[in-house]
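Observation: inputs received (chain + adenosine-5'-triphosphate).
Thought: call the complex predictor directly.
Action: predict_structure
Action Input:
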Amino acid sequence: MSLEKSAPASRGAASRGPASRRPASRGPASRRAAAPPQEAPPPPSETKEETPKITASELNVFYGETQALSDVSLSIGAKRVTALIGPSGCGKSTFLRCLNRMNDIIADCRIDGRVEIDGEDIYAEHVDSVLLRKRVGMVFQKPNPFPKSIYDNVAYGPRIHNMAAHPSHLEEIVEKSLRRAGLWGEVRDRLSDSGTDLSGGQQQRLCIARAIALNPEVILMDEPCSALDPIATARIEELLDELRDRYTIVIVTHSMQQAARVSQRTGFFHLGALVEEGATDAIFTNPGDRRTQDYITGRFG
Ligand SMILES: Nc1ncnc2c1ncn2[C@@H]1O[C@H](COP(=O)(O)OP(=O)(O)OP(=O)(O)O)[C@@H](O)[C@H]1O
Ligand SMILES: [Mg+2]
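Observation:
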């Protein structure tokens, strides 16, 4: 999917789209094709050589004079959950917002560095940030359904982006998105009720359905469970495990247990820097940096 603004034809959309930049021979699909017939393909989290879905390089972010991120470089693999942890104020949300240009809407925010998705520079001048955010969805800490019906909450984005040719197609998108968000069974008979009448956990799954309805490739989640009770939290965590078959997920969490349960990779931020990133098991059992060790053992934060 191209991120180009509807721009002059001379820009050459075909040659600049992400698909054309991705090396054709290195994706998981081609590895599968090359494997002997009986050999099951390794799950994405175990593949050694992988083209990253997202690559952030030397990101420096400033709010006015205050530097919030310093030289952050991080590659994020496709179809896995990457958890970002670290003490309050260390820049996790700032980093997450760089991945779909949500920082653009903060007046005094300045970003240096580069973020690529499938090899395409998302800060390039020709990139349409509305199309980018369709492709890179976001779920926030506090569930924020629109004051509209459950149906219209999910149908809102597909309508704006003209994704459904017929009303029946829109119904299909709504049902599929609610099913994937694990909410269909609870709301199928009350689709015209207001989204704000749902419980907190249901509202958060509605927000996930709303993101899914746009057919995103990446879903960013900023502490999506911090306003939820343990049962609703467990439901979202189960859901994350299902969603990673289809989507690249980046989740910020203050819960070390949650990071350990849901993610395959974990990055630890401290004072605006990415201290280390690695396989979640390794980060929690044998971190490479003393600061990570101190944080995960509760010595600070
Ligand atoms: N809109 C803003 N304007 C000015 N400064 C900001 C803004 N947003 C964040 N900051 C500052 O940038 C730094 C990083 O903030 P950020 O919200 O990214 O941290 P965080 O790791 O997500 O923290 P928390 O865990 O508390 O959510 C902090 O010093 C914060 O005060
Ligand atoms: Mg935050």
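Thought: report the result.
Final Answer: The CA atoms of residues 30 and 125 lie 32 Å apart. The longest strand covers residues 66-76.
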